[in-house]
Amino acid sequence: MASPIRILTAVPICDGHDSAINTINLEFIRHGIEVVYLGFHRYVGDIVRAAIQEDVAAIGISSYNGGHLDFFTDIVSQLTGKGANDIAVFGGGGGTITHDDARQMKRKGVDEIFFAGTSLAEMADYVKKGYGKRKKRRVKSNPDLVLARKLTELEEGASRWRKHQPSKDANPARTKGRTSKVIGFTGPGGAGKTTLIDELVLRFLQRQPKTRIAILSHDPSVIGEGALLGDRATMINSQDDRVFMRSMATRGQAGGLSPATESCLALLAHSGFDYVIIETVGTGQEALPFRNKLVDQTVLVMNPDYGARLQLQKIVMLDVADIVVVNKTDLERAKAALSEIEQRLTQNKRKQEIVATVAKRHRDPGVDELFELITK
Ligand code: B12
Which ligand 1 atom sits closest to the C-alpha of 17? Predict the structure, then answer.
């Protein structure tokens, strides 16, 4: 089965009109496309960096702020400057983009502009017809371009390979020559994993001027279907040249990771990053995503609202996590949750740490404590 087409979508800086792109994203996904959504109010540089790291076939921009002539063409020229002119640029913005503007934009390298009244299906068909075949890339000097394409090869190989071969046991992330510490974050959907990781990245960038970080982030998908890869939309601090982020769809695999996670992780762990952070999809009670010693340290992120105390006995990650983070401790139930989880961890008789955080709050002392535990 062919791998899904991957595109990146975003809304420009000084523009909060995201309702159009949210609708269009859903239509693309329904048509089997993997959409990495970067969110709104985004700089050209952040969009170009993300498109390169995600190795997408095209960038779709939804622009309503009136600055489309400069914005679209700046994306094209930055892509060209970085050797990634095989990544196409297209988009729309209702009546704010005139036909005359669109002609000028096309002359400067924009592929297509869609106007008011175009059906959603028409736009999805355009992407499927236009961006299904990857163009060859000649530039080999940009390390992000090279790494991103290798990750794609691994991901595409895994989705073909999985059907015919039994799983390999040897864990390549642990072989000789590895330079990175690998930290795995897991926990139920909505616990705040992505926000927490983004706040940790801010601390890495501020306190360790040379540290480089890779993030491998997962979102769920069914094999051969589309997916919304939306973690980048939550990431603010991670839009930085010292951070390499890659979003992966699970492509039909249960348990929180993708069939290609191990090999992609192995590649990242041997690519000169100081830390590789891996984030699973939102997981359930039975999930043990980091088997086979895939990571050096595991962090389970929980929400204080897990239900009755008995529920804690069923969460198997509580037995194996090195650090348990209770996030959103500004919620009313947090005090009781912290005490119940602490008691649950005492039964394990292991040296497990428990940390209380409010990741959405800047300079949160709990996130500082977690940062110390991860970097000590
Ligand atoms: C909905 C809306 C809002 C909502 C936005 C909600 C949200 N979260 O998105 C609210 C009410 C919050 C809002 C606020 C504002 N808005 Co407003 N808004 C609109 C409105 C009515 C519709 C835009 C829309 O979503 N259309 C739905 C999409 C699906 O259809 P479409 O636009 O026709 O797009 C087609 C194609 O272009 C294509 N397409 C669009 N994007 C993309 C992307 C890709 C990748 C592809 C393939 C295709 C594609 O899809 C459609 C196919 O049929 C327009 C007016 C209008 N009728 O266009 C004004 C409009 C865009 N807003 C405008 C303004 C000025 C504002 C405010 C500044 C008002 C104010 N003073 O506060 C604020 C700014 C908000 C901000 N933070 O940026 C102006 C912009 C003027 C300009 N640029 O010259 C407009 C044009 C209204 C006007 N005539 O004055 N707005």
Answer: 9
Task: Give residue 256's domain range.
Answer: 172-375
Token digits of residue 37: 């959504």
Is residue 141 situated within a structural domain? no
Residue 76 in any domain: the answer is yes
Q: Which residues line ligand 1 (CB under 6 A)?
A: 9, 15-21, 23-24, 60-62, 64-66, 90-96, 114-118, 123
- pTM for the model stands at 0.94
Q: List pLDDT tens digits, range 81-121.
A: 999 999 999 999 999 999 999 999 999 999 999 999 999 99
Closest ligand 1 atom to residue 60 Cα is 45
190 and 88 belong to one structural domain: no
Q: Is 253 inside a domain boundary?
A: yes
Question: Mutation test of ligand 1: which of 14, 25, 64, 110 has the most ligand atoms closer than 8 Å to its C-beta?
Answer: 64
120 and 176 within one domain = no
Q: Decide if 39 is inside a domain.
A: yes
* Residue 278, H or E segment: strand 275-279
From the CA of 348, how far away is ligand 1's center (Å)?
54
Q: What is the C-alpha separation between 179 and 201, in angstroms, rounded?
A: 18
Other Cβ atoms less than 10 A from the Cβ of 339: the count is 11
Report the Cα–Cα distance between both ends of the chain, in Å, rounded: 45
Say which CATH number the domain at 98 has.
Answer: 3.40.50.280
Position 267, amino acid: L
Which residue's alpha carbon is nearest to atom 10 within ligand 1?
A: 17
Percent of the chain topping pLDDT 90 = 84
Token pair recorded at residue 116: 């008011």
d(CA 17, ligand 1 centre) in Å: 5
CATH code of 176's domain: 3.40.50.300
34: helix, coil or strand? strand
| Residue that finishes a domain, picked among 70, 102, 130 | 130
